[in-house]
């Protein structure tokens, strides 16, 4: 390599991800051993079958297009983009066996010998994942750099990290006296879990012993099942502390048995939380629960924004950020329902308040709006329905004041159409599934993921089961859902001015929700329905499809990592918008990305496109 051009090449490599992650000495070695190739516009990258060496290519200037052998676009590449990972790990074959590379403009390429890279990675194995053949591993390396859960407080701690591993376990026929002796004399524990036939049937605390036994003069020789709290609230060891706190506040309890596969393994109490420094989100949820007016609740919107910024800037995993923001929205909604009932009086019949969309998926962010519905008992009269519509208007307007906008599509419980008895909802679902035309399909997709937030959960479960049963009997619905979901393609050519839109400032931007995240959510919905899964969370849906054999383990890992990476990009963008005093939106500007983010975005978009193709082959039978 010429001594004249070498400094320029070294400087370029030092800013190109993932080459810039290597030690400086390794970067200089690459700069001195690479080859330079020029392609004129329209020229295809040639391959010499007699040449043993393979290459990792870096675009210095110009633009390239990769197409699969059948002519389908794989990606468009620009300056600082890399390709050729596929053959870095000694897999037989040539680039032309997979895809062709053609210059869209006059293009200058740097060719890095694979043999050199492999030797360097043998010396620095900690950087190997940055150059992996598997896109999900490269995405993982990006997320490991971006996300760190160290010293993030109680947000990211799991129940098992904080809870005591000591809890008393007794049988339902154990006497009260024996139970008290085991709690205090043996286990030195404030709570006992009561078992019967291998199932958890209740709990009793030392406070219960004082109030229900001593104060009431109950005979201590009686069985503990007579004074226990039946059907106790429990928590799993791998759940977040924030979830445990929300349960404690919601049910007014000071301790949660930690249960793993129906086996008590520990106890989490409020004292554990105090010892491990409580955090702002916990205080916010507690404030929400103590609000007495809508105005008081609305005044907390600024604190919700502060929590969001702390979560994002603290590099919390996007799944955890979504969960905390969902818990805050849950708390606001429940409080407004309670305030509405205080204002209007006792509900005239059984009901279930349902949430849908991102709220139901536990994926709330700063742009999440309201998607809700009311399912009423079949005994509901016309006057009952009017009462619930007043309640829904109170709640919907209150949420809007709290910073959760009204749904522009009017998918809210305050609409008469979405405030109906069980039998009407059942007819809705049957009609939508039998006739999957556009309007019915849109209605169905909005309510394909619902979660009961208040009232009688069984009403929600009844209509959900009707939906699943109807889909199982109508294979045409899944085909229609898939055809609709794959009509929009991910932005494979994002950085060559494709699928970009003009924002208010005439800056070309990409709607990351429309062209990426929605595509993944739609695919998760389709695969979950095919697997008979009623879960709402996107990641859990893909895992269910994998467990049913509908997705390979690699495909499942790829799409989940892609989802996490893209949601992280959206959260970062929204946080930046808020910091700058602008309303949060989904319009990301490609010019804001360096080569690091751009490469991983392109990997993500290719993974989405690949899964769309797989879904068409599996679910759309022409």
UniProtKB/TrEMBL annotation:
UniProt-recorded Gene Ontology molecular function terms: [protein-PII] uridylyltransferase activity
Domain CBS intervals: 162-221, 228-284
UniProt organism field: Mangrovibacter plantisponsor
InterPro entries: CBS_dom, CBS_dom_sf, cNMP-bd_dom, cNMP-bd_dom_sf, Diverse_CBS-Domain, DUF294_put_nucleoTrafse_sb-bd, GlnD_Uridyltrans_N, RmlC-like_jellyroll
NADP found in the keyword field: no
Protein's recorded name: CBS domain-containing protein
Pfam families according to UniProt: CBS, DUF294, DUF294_C
Domain of life, source organism: Bacteria
Keywords from the UniProt entry: CBS domain
PANTHER family: CBS DOMAIN-CONTAINING PROTEIN (PTHR43080:SF2), CBS DOMAIN-CONTAINING PROTEIN CBSX3, MITOCHONDRIAL (PTHR43080)
PROSITE patterns linked to this entry: CBS
Keyword Zinc attributed: no
CDD domains attached to this UniProt entry: CAP_ED (cd00038), NT_GlnE_GlnD_like (cd05401)
């Amino acid at each position: 390599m010429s001594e004249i051009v070498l400094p320029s090449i070294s400087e370029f490599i030092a800013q190109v991800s993932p080459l810039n992650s290597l030690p400086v000495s390794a970067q200089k070695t690459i700069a001195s051993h690479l080859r330079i190739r020029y392609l004129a516009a329209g020229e295809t990258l040639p391959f010499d079958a007699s040449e043993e060496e393979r290459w990792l290519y870096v675009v210095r200037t110009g633009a390239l297009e990769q197409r699969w052998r059948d002519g389908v676009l794989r990606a468009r590449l620009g300056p600082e983009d890399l390709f050729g990972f596929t053959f870095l790990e000694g897999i037989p074959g040539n680039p032309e066996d997979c895809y062709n590379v053609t210059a869209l403009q006059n293009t200058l390429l740097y060719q890095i010998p694979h043999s050199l890279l492999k030797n360097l990675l043998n010396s620095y194995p900690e950087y190997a994942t940055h150059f992996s053949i598997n896109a999900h591993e490269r995405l993982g390396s990006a997320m490991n750099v971006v996300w760190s859960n160290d010293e993030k407080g109680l947000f990211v701690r799991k129940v098992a990290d904080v809870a005591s591993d000591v809890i008393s376990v007794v049988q339902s026929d154990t006497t009260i006296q024996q139970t008290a002796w085991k709690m205090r004399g043996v286990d030195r524990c404030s709570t006992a879990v009561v078992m019967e036939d291998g199932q958890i049937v209740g709990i009793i605390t030392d406070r219960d012993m004082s109030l229900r036994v001593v104060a009431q003069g109950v005979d201590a020789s009686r069985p503990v099942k007579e004074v226990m709290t039946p059907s106790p609230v429990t928590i799993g060891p791998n759940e977040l502390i924030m979830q445990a706190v929300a349960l404690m506040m919601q049910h007014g309890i000071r301790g949660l048995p930690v249960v793993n596969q129906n086996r008590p393994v520990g106890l989490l109490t409020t004292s554990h939380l105090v010892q491990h420094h409580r955090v702002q989100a916990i205080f916010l949820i507690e404030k929400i629960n103590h609000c007495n007016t809508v105005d008081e609740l609305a005044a907390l919107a600024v604190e919700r924004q502060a929590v969001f910024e702390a979560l994002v800037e603290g590099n919390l995993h996007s799944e955890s950020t979504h969960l905390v923001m969902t818990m805050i929205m849950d708390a606001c909604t429940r409080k407004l329902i309670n305030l509405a009932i205080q204002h209007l009086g006792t509900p005239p019949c059984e009901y279930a308040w349902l949430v849908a969309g991102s709220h139901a998926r536990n994926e709330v962010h700063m742009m999440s709006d309201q998607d809700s519905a009311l399912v009423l008992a079949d005994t509901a009269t016309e006057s009952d329905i009017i009462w619930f519509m007043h309640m829904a208007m109170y709640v919907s307007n209150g949420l809007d004041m709290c910073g959760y906008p009204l749904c522009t599509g009017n998918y809210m419980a305050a609409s008469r159409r979405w405030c109906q008895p069980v039998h009407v909802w059942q007819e809705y679902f049957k009609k939508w599934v039998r006739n999957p035309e556009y309007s019915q399909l849109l209605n169905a997709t909005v309510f394909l993921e619902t979660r009961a937030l208040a009232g009688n959960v069984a009403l929600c479960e009844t209509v959900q089961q009707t939906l699943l049963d109807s889909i199982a009997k109508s294979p045409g619905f899944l085909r229609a859902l898939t055809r609709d979901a794959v009509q929009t393609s991910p932005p494979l050519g994002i950085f060559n001015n494709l699928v970009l839109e003009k924002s208010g400032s005439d800056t070309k931007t990409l709607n990351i929700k429309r062209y990426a995240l929605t595509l993944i959510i739609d695919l998760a919905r389709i695969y979950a329905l095919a697997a008979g899964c009623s879960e709402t969370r996107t990641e859990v849906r893909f895992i269910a499809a994998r467990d049913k054999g509908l997705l390979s383990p690699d495909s499942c890992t790829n799409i989940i990592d892609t989802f996490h990476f893209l949601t992280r990009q959206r959260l970062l963008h929204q946080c930046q918008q808020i910091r700058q005093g602008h309303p949060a939106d989904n319009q990301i500007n490609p010019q804001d990305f360096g080569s690091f983010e751009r490469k991983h975005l392109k990997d993500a978009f290719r993974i989405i496109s690949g899964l769309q193709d797989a879904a068409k082959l599996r679910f759309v039978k022409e």
